[in-house]
Recover the amino acids of this structure.
């Protein structure tokens, strides 16, 4: 994947992407929908496994956090259906102006997990309470996607490398996101939405690496980039020169008074629990995903590949006795399978 910047004189300026590779079906805007149905742009997320799993920056969806459930390394986030909640605007193509959008274009997020840790607070410990704090600006979301061939195509996903790549000073990376989000419901009963959104890319080069985070208040493992990454790109994917997603846009400062802008990207390869955090990904092999296969060994036939064992068992029950269910990795779109 290669995109050309606007000008060689300003190689780090954001540039509009006209979606020649269909990535708008994988990289999506994140909105907050309140109790009155009003919709507000928050940032960017991206689809990673073809099963409705999306990654974003935790600060993009932190408004939804209400009742975290303790976990060893991360926290499940529940949100009330009566309160503000995240929704994703799926890839219906480039849209500008006032139009009728299909209901399927908006996917409600039904599950969120954020990377958390126990906060070091002696007073809270004396009271027998624990206080969670963010350990990485990273969140996993799942959304129910119901593609309709005539209206909403099956979403694409981006290849994620969770291990085997480490940032180096001088590396060129590319961030993609939606720096100018505006979406508001015009009236309660209408599906007409006034929407302005453009997908932009912005290059940058790595200037520093912070494996333990920038400081005590920013513990996210990040690499620092000289760039111009506007705020709406937060949560968007960061690609390496091989076209693999290796991080997420976390924070940024715009260029000012002749000084270059700076951004920080959450780095997957520096997060020790990333493999468990996103269990459907084969972190060593982009475009491979882990799940349950229904297969026959001789002659070889991969009859189906599923996110859950229950789904696989349902198909296997309809097959003859030569087929069995196995857990492993599958190269998406092929019958390649590794136990």
């Amino acid at each position: 994947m290669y995109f050309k910047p606007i000008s060689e004189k300003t190689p780090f300026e954001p540039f509009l992407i006209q979606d020649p590779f269909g990535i708008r079906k994988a990289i999506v805007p994140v909105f907050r929908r309140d109790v009155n149905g009003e919709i507000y742009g928050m940032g960017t997320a991206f689809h990673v496994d073809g099963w409705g799993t999306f990654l974003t920056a935790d600060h993009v969806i932190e408004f939804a956090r209400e009742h975290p459930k303790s976990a060893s390394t991360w926290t499940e986030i529940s949100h009330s259906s009566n309160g503000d909640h995240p929704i994703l605007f799926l890839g219906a193509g480039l849209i500008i102006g006032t139009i009728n959008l299909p209901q399927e274009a908006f996917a409600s997020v039904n599950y969120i997990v954020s990377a958390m840790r126990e906060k070091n607070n002696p007073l809270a410990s004396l009271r027998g309470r624990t206080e969670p704090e963010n350990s990485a600006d990273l969140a996993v979301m799942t959304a129910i996607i119901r593609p309709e061939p005539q209206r909403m195509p099956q979403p694409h996903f981006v290849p994620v490398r969770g291990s085997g790549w480490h940032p180096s000073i001088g590396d060129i990376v590319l961030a993609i996101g939606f720096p100018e989000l505006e979406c508001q419901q015009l009236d309660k009963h209408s599906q007409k939405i006034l929407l302005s959104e453009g997908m932009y890319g912005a290059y940058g080069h790595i200037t520093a690496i912070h494996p333990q985070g920038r400081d005590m208040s920013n513990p996210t493992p990040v690499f620092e980039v000289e760039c111009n990454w506007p705020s709406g790109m937060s949560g968007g994917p960061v690609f390496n020169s091989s076209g693999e997603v290796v991080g997420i846009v976390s924070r940024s400062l715009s260029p000012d008074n002749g000084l270059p802008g700076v951004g920080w990207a959450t780095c997957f390869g520096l997060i020790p629990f990333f493999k468990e955090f996103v269990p459907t990904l084969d972190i060593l092999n982009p475009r491979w995903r882990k799940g349950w296969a229904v297969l026959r060994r001789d002659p070889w036939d991969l009859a189906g590949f599923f996110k859950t064992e229950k789904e696989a068992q349902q198909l296997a029950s309809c097959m003859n006795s030569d087929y069995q269910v196995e857990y492993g990795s599958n190269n998406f779109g092929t019958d390649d399978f590794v136990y």
Summary: The chain has two domains: 15-277, 288-338. The longest strand covers residues 106-118. The chain is about 5% helix and 40% strand.
